Amino acid sequence: MNFKNTEIEYDDDLKPIDMQPLFYPKTMAVIGVSQNKIGGIKYVIANDVSGYMQAGGKVYPINPKYKELYGYKVYPSLFDPEVPNIDLAIIAVPAAAVPDVVRDCGKKRVKFAVIFSSGFAESGNFDLQKKLEDAIEEAKRYTRFIGPNCLGINNPYSHVSYYPGMASAPGNVSYVSMSGGNTGRLTTWLVTQGMGINNAVSIGNSIDLTATDFINYFREDPKTKVIALYLESVPNGRKFMKALKAATLKKPVVLWKGGQTEVGQKATVSHTGGLAGSYEIWKSMAYQTGSFLADYFEMFADFVTCLSLDYYLPNDENVAILVCGGGISVEYADMCIKAGLKVPELSKETQNKLAEVFPSVNVSFRNPLDLGEYGYVPHYFDKALRIVAKDPNISSILYVREAERFILFQDVIGIPNMDQLTIKLLIESSKIIKKPLFCSMSPNGQELEHYEPRFNFKVAMLKNNLAVVDLVPHACELIKQMVRYKRYLDAHKNNSSKY
To answer: Relative to the CA of 131, which of 18, 305, 386, 475 has its CA 20 to 30 Å away?
Structure first.
């Protein structure tokens, strides 16, 4: 599937930092706790309810004004004799006090620190930004910093969390985001559809550690199968591109770029204080580095979801479409062509084999393949899928399963539990078919009685390693970019021993 070269020699720009103490800290300090539950104290509560403390992690709330808060002992200083060496500190003090606390972290030799506090360049406070940059430069010999204006780490394996009750479940996606809201957004999306994450990192304004550093780390991380990025800007485009090129040879990288328009670019300045740059340049960079590029959240989530599964990369743009209905066959063909894919006619041999299974009434054996009502019968559909997959002119298959119609048709046809039978047969076929298979749900009704079977079917499919995409344009775009990724990997197989 993906080309992996285990003998790649990396230069200093690409050597990963040891982030084990960041993602698996044994000790944590939260500096600046108060009675404000949306301030620093939420990190203490979050890492209590997440199970971090129960698993043996130690959290030290710090503020000289308190001895206790919400049942937690509070320490006066990072240098209190009872506060041990700290792997991870959370800085949640007013912006003006942050530079001094940063220096304290360096003196204490804290390994990593998350600067939750905001109010720097993103707020137009450039003098304070300069003071913070100077403080970080002094301290980073001993302490590496994330932020400011960020949330930090969500790691379900170590139970580290940044918000009480935050969605979290073990998975293989490592996510780096300049937006705290979008960090939680993708995490929740994955977890609630039965999947999970390896790490989610909210990096904010990235004065010290940047997306590039995390890409280098996750590239070598065995728990990471796909790297997801929400970025608005990067401080060093050359290093960023190098990191992407090295990473995509080992695993897919999915990029969602915030600030694609003039208005959006202006908004990024007040959000993270970064300069977004032309979206056309970012597109070119994605193409040159073998990265996947999504235009908005729903597409981004679909890309990340499918690439976190086991998959095959298509050799070319030739797609077979399997549906039940003439209208939807036209719609899906249009979407594929608009995305730059090809929908070639099936071979005569394939059509003849289909004709041996299906009657000639209410079906079409060309491409798109319209199976009519026969396509709702799981065994018939499965036979069609296997026949089409053998066509040498087809590299990937896009098919439709309308889960909310199972209830209707299982009574008419007399086949109980059609959803379970459909999944069972798809699992068996996916083990035989060595081509990419994508299911589109083609939503019908929007009431709970329609949504619930559709959602349950999707979750069951994903849990069984069967790719599901909510909207067909997303599937088309993903197939197109997977073709591009396959060609990128093929082109670099013999030219990737040194970076």
So the answer is: 18
Q: How far is CA 484 from CA 28, 287, 298, 316, 487, in A?
A: 43, 8, 21, 9, 5
Q: Give the CB-side neighbour count of residue 229, counting CA atoms within 13 A.
A: 29
Cis peptide before 21 (omega within 30 of 0): no
Domain harbouring 221, CATH code = 3.40.50.261
3-state secondary structure string across 373-439? HHHHCHHHHHHHHHHHHCCCCCCEEEEECCHHHHHHHHHHHCCCCHHHHHHHHHHHHHCCCCCCEEE
Q: Is residue 94 part of a domain?
A: yes
Most confident range (mean pLDDT) of 5-19, 271-285, 326-340, 396-410 is 326-340
Residue span of the structural domain in which 49 resides: 14-146
Same domain, yes or no: 323 and 469:
yes
Question: Do 123 and 181 belong to one domain?
Answer: no
Write out the two tokens for 148.
């400011």
Half-sphere exposure at residue 259, Cβ-oriented, CA atoms within 13 angstroms: 23
Helices and strands counted in the chain (H then E): 17, 18
This model's pTM is above 0.85: yes
For residues 51 and 160, what is the distance between their CA atoms, to the nearest angstrom?
8
Q: Which tokens belong to 176? A: 């780096």
Decide: 119 and 95 in contact? Cβ < 8 Å.
yes
Same domain for 386 and 476, yes or no, is yes
Identify the domain boundary among 90, 121, 146. Answer: 146
pLDDT digits (tens, 9 = 90+) for 175-216: 999 999 999 999 999 999 999 999 999 999 999 999 999 999
Domain assignment present for 2: no
- For residues 204 and 218, give the distance between their C-alpha atoms in angstroms, rounded to a whole number: 18
Q: Single out the residue in 100, 117, 146 at which a domain terminates.
A: 146
The DSSP secondary-structure symbol of 96 reads G
Residue positions counted in the chain = 499
